[in-house]
Design goal:
alpha+beta, globular, single chain, 29% helix
């Protein structure tokens, strides 16, 4: 069953989302050549503590760090380390926040200084596909209307959507029903209702969509080692349309 949130619960989720968005904004600023990915984790840890919030990924299913930092062919779940960010990299930052019993989840991909035209397009298409999906997140639509809008835009632009990973509901738990795939047939899936809150997150590959998990049992990479981008917003379905709660 897909949880329906009350107005008060959505307000609680939105407060958590504001914290997540504010921290993500600072992490984007800090994503520069020469920066170690562990430094981004340290920034997030310090900022969350100042806001009396918890980084939701730390310890979740034994994930060892507070945020995910995925570089180039890493799709998601990159573990912050001593790895140095270089000019020309694309860096995906994923952050979850727990504040006063409510979760937020958001992600953004940064092109570091000079990146080539194909990678610029990959990032732009991924971000636009997210907003194409969000446009369909409204009452009386079907869940896979979101999925289809993302897939069709991505594939129209010559890229592919990862099929082994999905978005999800969110609220009092980090992951709730429903699963929100980034591919699917329009006008299928559960009927969307006001009060649902979804974490919509296209993960898009420059090459083929197939992925694999590294030996660390977390980091997902493209099998063909093509680059990948990842954007995510937590979105509430409301009577006046979808509201992005994690908007920067």
């Amino acid at each position: 069953m897909i949880p329906i949130k009350t107005k008060e619960e959505i307000n609680g989720i939105e407060k958590s989302c504001k914290i997540a968005a504010d921290i993500l904004k600072e992490l984007i600023k800090a994503t520069k050549p020469g920066t170690k990915t562990i430094y981004l984790d340290e920034i997030a840890t310090d900022l969350a503590a100042k806001k009396k919030a918890k980084l939701a990924f730390k310890g979740y299913r034994n994930f060892p760090k507070g945020i995910c930092v995925s570089i180039n062919d890493e799709v998601v779940h990159g573990i912050p380390s001593q790895r140095i960010i270089n000019n020309g990299d694309i860096v995906s930052i994923d952050i979850g926040i727990l504040f006063n019993g409510f979760y937020a989840d958001t992600a953004f991909t940064v092109g570091v200084n000079e990146i080539n035209g194909t990678l610029k397009k990959l990032i732009e298409v991924t971000e636009t596909s997210l907003h194409r999906g969000i446009e369909k997140a409204k009452a009386e639509s079907r869940l896979f209307d979101i999925s289809s809008a993302i897939q069709s835009y991505v594939e129209m632009n010559g890229f592919s959507v990862v099929r082994d990973l999905v978005g999800h509901g969110i609220g009092k738990n980090l992951h709730e029903e429903p699963m929100v795939p980034n591919f699917g047939k329009p006008n299928t899936g559960p009927r969307l209702e006001n009060g649902m809150v979804l974490a919509i997150e296209p993960m898009v590959c420059q090459g083929k969509w197939q992925v694999e998990i590294l030996e660390n049992k977390w980091t997902v990479v493209t099998k063909d080692h093509s680059f990948a981008a990842h954007f995510e917003h937590t979105v509430a379905i409301l009577p006046d349309g979808p509201r992005i709660l994690t908007k920067i």
